[in-house]
Amino acid sequence: MAVVTNKVIWPNYDQTNVKIAGKTEDDKTSLSKDAFLELLVTQLKNQDPLSPQSNTEFIAQMAQFTSVEQLMNMNKQLTQLNSDIGSASTMIGKSVTWQELDDKGSTVMYTDVVKSIVATDGVLYAKFEDNTMIKVSDIVTISDQTPVETEEPETDASAESAEDAETPDSEAAADSGEEQTS
């Protein structure tokens, strides 16, 4: 009895084909800098020796390669910065703690509430109410903002002042009572 399988087994896989077959659709639709360079080298290998490519065309292709490489690097950096800003923005309104060295070289811990996140030259900073900024990478803890103490309602304040008013009178009455007994 024969066993039927749906797998095709090839004894000699070409590694290039395996890599290409393993790529996703996104990888197939974009041209990476490595693929662009590979195409350029292949073109140079297969050019007609009787009519070689002109220097101008070759320089133009090298300039295109450099442009593609720079655009790929810029895209990678912008993607990373976008991700970092998204992550750092969750700190807004949170209480953060960081450490700095004082004049004596001792480590001092500071805590404040983040008001905004600022990106300058690819570095993210947490900005506080007093406009001071620290690098996000210097932050050691992040926590929910501690509740701000609120003023007590007026009814409690008037009750306290009434108690305070009674206390001196009762002390005065007690003092006058003590004077009479003495």
TrEMBL record:
Keywords of the record: Bacterial flagellum biogenesis, Cell projection, Cilium, Flagellum
A GO biological-process term: bacterial-type flagellum organization
Acidic residues: bias regions: 149-169
Stretch list, region Disordered: 143-182
InterPro entries the record matches: FlgD
Similarity comment text for this entry: Belongs to the FlgD family.
Name of protein: Flagellar basal-body rod modification protein FlgD
Lineage: Bacteria, Bacillati, Bacillota, Bacilli, Bacillales
